């Protein structure tokens, strides 16, 4: 099956000479949730803007369901919903009218039943007659999501959708995202909350300096690049790691009260048994031992630093 979104050798250089994208290629499968991660200025928003037809590319091609985003703008834009970072809303319009108007902008006939469902899914129904200027920042962001869903898109871009949104509202938003994915909508997410990507995404794409550094299934990525950490809390603090333990590359933390040992879970031997024996031989008594799996954030930082 052909990807719903196909990006081929995409580049973008602005009039200032800044090259925001450098030969980006990326295929997005229908019905998946792809998390697009990268630091500020990495090229995430430029990439999304080109796919959505807001910014023209300098080179390369983008197709949505087989339609070219430049040549077939109307067809591709009708299939895409975009939730931008900026809270751009008409302050003196009501929630109902602004969401209904957005549906009309995409050439769709009025459908009050669909608009009602969208507003209820986003906990906006009781605010439908309020003007946007009366809403909180979190409510306004939900309105942006409602506008993006008003025309029933097949592809939904969420560009930092939960920025400035409280934890409970963030959770309800991801429940909506899961329902959308279950209905067949393809979702591309950028977020600073990497734990969200870890929880909800099927695949992870990392972009930095205008280049895609990696695209990987989330589970495979964490298995391949994940590390575990052994934390050893000491009964008595030490000033330095004894020379006899130098081969373990231990790091001394918390004023000498804790030793950290990094190991590869896929290795034939972790070295933990030998380390514990060596600690005993060195006369170091232990108070507690615990392990910690690398998070997606740890892996993300590692990939970005390696790509710089």
Automatic annotation (TrEMBL):
Keywords: ATP-binding, Nucleotide-binding, Transport
Protein name (database record): ABC-type multidrug transport system, ATPase component
Keyword DNA repair recorded: no
Organism whose genome encodes this protein: Sinorhizobium sojae CCBAU 05684
Signal peptide range: none
Family listed: Belongs to the ABC transporter superfamily.
Stored PROSITE patterns: ABC_TRANSPORTER_1, ABC_TRANSPORTER_2
Segments forming domain ABC transporter: 5-234
Molecular function terms from GO: ATP binding; ATP hydrolysis activity
């Amino acid at each position: 099956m052909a990807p719903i979104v196909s990006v081929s050798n995409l580049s973008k250089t602005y009039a200032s000479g800044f090259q925001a994208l450098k030969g980006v290629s990326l295929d997005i499968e229908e019905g998946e949730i792809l998390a697009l991660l990268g630091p500020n200025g990495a090229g995430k928003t430029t990439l999304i803007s080109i796919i959505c037809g807001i910014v023209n590319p300098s080179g390369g091609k983008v197709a949505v369901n087989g339609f070219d985003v430049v040549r077939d703008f109307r067809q591709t834009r009708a299939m895409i919903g975009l939730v931008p970072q900026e809270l751009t809303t008409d302050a003196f319009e009501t929630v109902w009218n602004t969401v209904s108007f957005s549906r009309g902008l995409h050439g769709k006939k009025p459908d009050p039943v669909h608009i009602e469902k969208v507003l209820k899914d986003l906990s906006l129904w009781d605010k439908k007659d309020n003007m946007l200027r009366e809403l909180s920042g979190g409510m306004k962001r939900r309105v942006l999501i409602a506008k993006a869903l008003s025309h029933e898109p097949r592809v939904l871009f969420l560009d930092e959708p939960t920025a400035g949104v409280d934890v409970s509202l963030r959770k309800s938003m991801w429940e909506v995202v899961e329902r959308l994915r279950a209905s067949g909508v393809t979702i591309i997410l950028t977020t600073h909350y990497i734990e969200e990507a870890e929880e909800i995404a099927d695949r992870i794409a990392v972009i930095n300096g205008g280049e895609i550094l990696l695209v990987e299934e989330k589970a495979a990525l964490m298995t391949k690049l994940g590390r575990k950490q052994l934390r050893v809390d000491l009964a008595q603090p030490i000033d330095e790691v004894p020379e006899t333990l130098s081969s373990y590359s231990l790091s001394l933390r918390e004023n000498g009260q804790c030793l950290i040992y990094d190991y590869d879970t896929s290795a034939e031997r972790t070295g933990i048994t030998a380390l514990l024996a060596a600690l005993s031989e060195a006369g170091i008594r232990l108070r507690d031992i615990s392990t910690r799996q690398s998070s997606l954030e740890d892996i993300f930082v590692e990939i970005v630093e390696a790509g710089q």
